[in-house]
DNA sequence: TGATCCCGCCAACGT
DNA sequence: ACGTTGGCGGGATCA
């Protein structure tokens, strides 16, 4: 130790003497060179990488670069030896060159994003470590994070299997779900609120307070989330109870997936992660350590291009944060069992179908146990037990995934409510994002919407006000695709981002939805009264995000400003409105919700909501890249997640509609037409937007999305009060569900009647964004809309009632005074 | 400075 | 007993 350290310390000096930190002799070099020179190249590589938009680069490119660079570096090395002195120093592997991120890049370069099942994608840690010329310890860091994403799985000692990104979307879905169940959104808001309240002191009583508040909801300890097919194989092998890095990684990802602007600051993440296990001792050292770990994880995730570093600037200063740049996570479509619907269709993806249930079970298995073990606070334990009990009660027997796990579920009611806004945010946000993302969201949102709907319903209670959340939910429903421009059936468009294609059938009614779907919409409360759903949601909205790419600009201006004026007032009202919920209604809702919840799980697993748009699996890509897809590309067409869906009816996926195209920026209704046009066009159809209603109806009915009698209007766009909700009813078998849905629908309708979507939406922001995203890379194109509501960003509207007794957020409190945040990329 | 985070000690585990 | 994993945090670098 000492020696090494000293070496490190006196590096500069020593280094000069001994270039590689190794013995003076040259020997080491040769080896290094051959394999893949780890360090030297890195600096150059890094430079290059940073220079180029990181996201874009393909792995191959990286490889090339690395190789080239390595060679170059080697050359350098030689030179260095001769040089000695300053120059030499310069060339020395700087710390950066040894960074975990770089190492991870190298690591990833060794394996294809979408490996074919056939090839043996085994990873031998020793070999890798050797080849990359790093201590094994470092490899563990990488592998652990990859494992958390199910990109690799441990087979045995020293041996891992490489899965690449095939499971990524599923994993993300699962994580998102878990995150939602854990109320991460709320937690985040709470933390922010706290921060705001106590500007500075970080530790201290406040923490306790926080912890306490959290405590109830916290379920925190979830264990590792597994996927169906991905269970840890040799149990014996992975007995390590502590999978903290893995678990941390998953939680960290969850935070992104759950927050609306998908930006998470390290500080918040650390607090939440700490909070989960030990609220009590939130001491600095612990916090610091957590942060360190988060950096490790963040580096790997960055290498995977799932996140990128940004800075959030508040009054206090700049805080490091990361922004999700990964794929939008669909609501668990798979979970929902598209299969069900798609009977006709080709078999669903292998895993998705069979394993879903399994997944769930694994998600949060024995958290109590584990937690207990680790951080045995009796209190906590008790709480968790209670929670579990509740879960059990509420939760259906079906071992459904995640939901069961979470304690929060218990409190589901409130929590979900809270979540609603969150979701909305996401969706909204999505708009700004790349088109691809948008499309993803659409599909996702649809699902979510369905799920949420019950909750949504309850919100409307307040007299005129439509809860923003509700609105959002309604509106969001993404998807609508005008798809059809003509007739037809679902088209499948090539997905930009992930390469996934979906056929989306939209309910005409939903069409309008699409339009709506924009963040802007959130801000504006359409409705009847003062609703605004957004604000709270947007806590972050406050922030500005600045990206090199120019996000900043966008963020600064757009949506926010325009909305602001209107919004602010609205926001307040919203809050109040929430508070005002009538109990009776609330109760009803509660019941409804509860019921819903109970069913929900079962549904989740089995079912399917096809809210506005549903996806039908077309084909599945096997793990291999068969289909001729390019594979490596980010696009990763084949990934499981990206299942392709075909129309039930025709079964021919002749057309592809990319969700993206469909989605567009729904910002304003007014815009909608435009969107549709442009988007559609892009997709290739020049035809008018009117889908043939008959076809749609037929399709929907056929699929079971809508009752036989129901007809969907042909022209979705601009229709305010379509039948919309119906689709939700869909094929689900559960009775309860149907009942609930009906209620929901009613509510929705009421809501709509109130004036709902129409007017205000139209007001919304014009859509500027291109419907079709081009390159995935250009995130910037997408405007990120952050809303800065004067009032407060973080307010969570939903929280008025705490059924569980916890309190997490009281309505009033949540409201966070505005702070300005800026996000900037480095 | 504060943000990053490399490095490697050493404990927990497995075999 | 020894090898593998990986938590952890000192302290070096970077910005």
From TrEMBL:
Gene3D superfamilies: Winged helix-like DNA-binding domain superfamily/Winged helix DNA-binding domain
Pfam families according to UniProt: WHD_E2F_TDP
Name recorded for this polypeptide: Transcription factor E2F8
Membership in a protein family: Belongs to the E2F/DP family.
Basic and acidic residues: compositionally biased ranges: 558-570
Domain E2F/DP family winged-helix DNA-binding: 95-164, 240-326
Annotated region described as Disordered, given as residue ranges: 1-40, 549-580, 790-809
